[in-house]
Amino acid sequence: MPPRKKEYGIKRASGSLIHFRPPVSATTVRRHSAVVPSVLTFAVIVASGGLLLMIEKGMLNSVQTPPPRANGKKAEYRMRSSDAAVDVESQIVQEIRNRTIRSMCGQKNTADSVWSLSPLQRKTLLQHILVNDEHRFLYCYVPKVACSNWKRVLKVLSGALANVDVKVKMDHRADLLFLSDLSPEEIRHRLRHYFKFMFVREPMARLLSAYRNKFGEIEAYQRKYGAEIIRRYRKGYAKDKKIAGNDVTFTEFVRYLLDEDPERMNEHWMPIYNLCQPCAVEYDFIGSYERLEVDAAYVLERVGAPQHIGFPERQTWYKPVTKETLHYYLCTVPQKFLKDLLPKYILDFSLFGYPLPNTTTEYCRH
Q: Are 41 and 90 in contact (CB under 8 A)?
C-alpha cells in the first residue's frame, strides 16, 4: 500500500484541517531565492495583521453590520499548481486568511454550524453551495467572483457541457445540484466528508464590477433596480414613471446599498460573508479572484478533475476592474457615504485579508 500523502494546513479548534499547498522544498526556495512576497502581499499582511490584532483583542466584537437606514489560444492542458514559483506567496495569503478566520469565528455569538444560522441565513447559504458527488466537493459560489466559469466547470464535470469553451448562454440553475436540493441528512454528510472551497474578491472591486455589469448592460436590472434607485435618490424623479434606469450613478448605487439590509440584498452585492458563512462552514480552501489562474488550477488538481479540463479563459467582452478604475469611481463618492458603507462589508475585508481602501481627500487628488 503506497504511503499516504502528508497533508499540510492549519488546524481549527475543532480539529479539522484547512489545506494549502505543500511547502516548497529548501532546494526550490534556494533556486527561486529572488522570489519573495510582493509589495502588494506585504501590504495585505500588514493590513490583515492589524485587523487580526483587533479581532484577537475583541475590538471587532462590537462591530456589527449596520441595519438598513430606511484573446490568445487556450492551452491544451491546464497549468499545474506546482509549476508556479508563486507557491510561497500563495501560502502566506492562505495562512493569514486562515488565522484570521479562526480568530474571528471563535468569538461569542458567532454561528459555528449551518444549523445554528437563522432560517434566512441558512437558506441563502444552501442556495449558494453547489455539489459535485463524483468528485466529492462543495463550491460556494459568489457572484462577480468568476462564478459563471466555475459553473461551466461543474457542468463539464457532470457531462452537461462538452467543454468549458462551448458558446452557450449560461443557465445558472439548470444541470446544477445545490445543497438546498438535499435533505438535512444528505447535507450533513457532504459538509462532513467533501472538499469545500470558495473564492473571494476585494469587496469594493466586486461592488464596482456588479454596478458596471448590471446597470450598464442588463436591462432587467435597470428596470427592476435602476429605476427605483433613481426615484429614491435623484432629486425631482420621485414620481417619474418613465425612468429607464440605465444611468444610475455610482454614488446613487452606494446610497442604495446603505439603505439595504445585507441579509436581504441581491446576491450580486450581498457581502461574501452572508453568502458563504465561513464561520458556519469549515472551508478547506479559500481562493482569490486576484490569483484566479493559480488558485483555480490548484482546486481542479485537488478535486481530481481530468487533466484536460482547465479553467475557462475570461470572455473577450470582459471589462476588468483595474486599480485606476476603482480609484476613479471610489473618489467620485462623497467620503461620508463610503465611511458608512465600509462597515457593511467589514467582515469581507477583515476575514479575507483585504486592506481597507484609501479614499482620503489627499489620495483622491492624485
A: no
Do residues 215 and 209 make contact, with C-beta atoms less than 8 angstroms apart? no
Residues facing residue 129 across a β-bridge? 140
- The string of pLDDT tens digits covering residues 71-125 is 333 333 455 544 544 577 777 888 888 888 988 898 888 888 999 999 999 999 9
Q: How far apart are CA 11 and CA 76, in angstroms?
A: 37
CA dist 122 and 276 (Å) reads: 10
Q: What is the pLDDT of residues 16-41, one digit of tens each?
A: 444 444 433 333 333 333 333 333 33
